[in-house]
Amino acid sequence: MFYPVIDGKRTTKTVGLLRELTQQQADSKAAEMQRNLKLQAAREIISVGKVVEQYRREKLRELRHSTQRVSLLWLKKHVLPRWGEHPITELDPRPVQLWLESLALAPKTRGHLKGLMHSLVKYAMWSKMMPLGVNPISLVTVKGSSKNVKESRSLTEEEFHQLVRHLREPFRTMVQLQLCHGLRVSELLALKWKDVDWLNSRITISHGIVNQQLDEVKTQRSNQTRTLDPRLLSILSAWKQSTEFGTAEDWLFPSPVKIGRLPYSYTGYWRALQSATAKAGLGRLGTHSFRHSYRSWLGSEGFTPELQKDLMRHTDIRTTMGYGKVFSTAMEEANSKIAEKALAYGVLTSDTSH
């Protein structure tokens, strides 16, 4: 018998009977058995890298294309260099949290990275690569992960009209459609003429496109059919008459570079915006600013938060309230209305006598 120590645990193994083996044979057999046990133990250690490899094959492909792309980038740039060789069973909350805090990334991005690590451990449990138990990443905290570092920008009516004056087609129609319905840029670029119901003045939002890869919309609530204002319908009709690509299967905003086979890319749209904002003296402007502006204008017009949530196609009203801002003029008008109600029955005086 010999007593090998594997993974810090002493075990007992029988190599044979004394009457059958010499001491030299027993030692040789024990050494061979110990080598085999160590190799077996090494094979049973599942690294984070192995989990990532299998997770990519089985689970990642089920996600939206944009999510796949970002997840692969984070895995390659951050997770694998630090944790690739680390056993998945030995991921502890403290070192993971210290690692996240050391990254020169926005809190929101670090929060997404934490979520990705949580998904990897969850997958490892689901696929029996590690025992079931409490996910250690759930004990990791990332401060400020729900907040954007940069304040979102919303355009006033005057700023938007100034911008439109400096845009050529189809970018003028694009920004008008995007703001009038608070569309995400991926949804705007994915629209086809078949999505427009001319008879009933409606438009269906059912797809998004990221890196020229067509996909479903971001959430189930995002899939929606909206009524088009007659003025916006007229603008779309004018654009349809002027474009070469006006069949049902054509993109609303086809790229001339791709001869209509693909819509304008995000980069092409963004560059046109930067050129126009520079001419209008508005500084740099992101495409998501139109969605923020849409929410701001809804709030300024006094629509209820619940209605705003539905129009923004959000699931959680807290997400909606994080968009845009109420402009100061609307705040002044609101305060004036409150004062009007409070002071309707006379003006307060400094007379405090009884």
CATH class of the largest domain: Mainly Alpha
Computed over alpha carbons, the radius of gyration is 31 Å
- The CATH superfamily label of the largest domain reads Intergrase catalytic core
Give unreliable regions as ranges.
346-354
Structural class: mainly alpha
Work out the helicity level: 40-55%
How does the overall form come out from the CA principal axes? elongated
- Number of helices in the DSSP assignment: 14
CATH topology name of the largest domain, in short, is hpI Integrase, Chain A
Architecture per CATH nomenclature, i.e. the level-2 architecture of the largest domain: Orthogonal Bundle
Any chance you could write out the topology, listing elements then pairs?
Layout: E1 5-6, E2 9-10, H1 23-44, H2 48-58, H3 65-83, H4 93-102, H5 107-126, H6 157-165, H7 171-181, H8 185-189, E3 196-197, E4 202-205, E5 207-210, E6 213-216, E7 224-227, H9 230-242, H10 266-280, H11 289-300, H12 305-312, H13 317-321, H14 328-342
Antiparallel strand pairs: 1-2, 3-4, 4-7, 5-6
Helix pairs in contact: 2-3, 2-5, 6-10, 7-9, 7-11
